[in-house]
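User: Here's a chain of 244 residues. Predict its fold as tokens.
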Amino acid sequence: MDVVSMGALRVRRVVVHPEHAGKSDGSRALTVVLLHGFGAPGDDLVGLAGAVGAPPGTTFLFPEAPHDLAEFTSLPVYGGARAWWMVDVGRYERALSSGRLGDVIDEVPDGLDEARAALASMFDALAKQGTPSELVVVGGFSQGSMLSVDFALRDARPLRGLVVMSGALIAASEWRPRMKARAGMPLFQSHGTHDPILPYEVAKLLNRELVSAGLVGDFLSFAGGHGIPPETMRDLGTWLGSIA
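Assistant: Prediction complete.
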């Protein structure tokens, strides 16, 4: 692993088995950008590079969110916790119980535009280094997956696929009109049926919207909470192999 600056972001980079990266047809390997969740350190997802069984030669990039969580709270913050923007962790659960889910999914969080611009600057840097966006899969976990969806829907450059692990629908009124522009794009989505942070029902709602708009992929449920279990890692590796 090495740590590099790409645009506005600090990025950890891992290449899987580069010694076996050659393809007989001369095509190039995928680059997979995975964004960590709210309150996680910048290296939180790095272990996935060696765990998912991606095709040899796959480059994994793990951007670090621009904000130290301590910027948003007076409470003690430990372990290098970072955030793409500030969130109210219990908001979805309260909205479901009160019947006001529509209010939450329509919200455009403060800081989302800034986070998307930082991610776009990373893609600009990738292009300057010779990696075309059509070879790039973008995705993440939790808050990172929501930023990935937002980027994929608002940025015009071609992408190879979208990964949404334990994500949710936000900015719905702004996302929905943009979804059909990504019709045909491969989608990998997973979510725990007992997720206490981002409810399963909200993830299913996001999936219905994306698939109805023409994105292509399965929704992979697992019996668990807010995390990335071994079966999700296995299925992600299989999916990456199918689109490489």
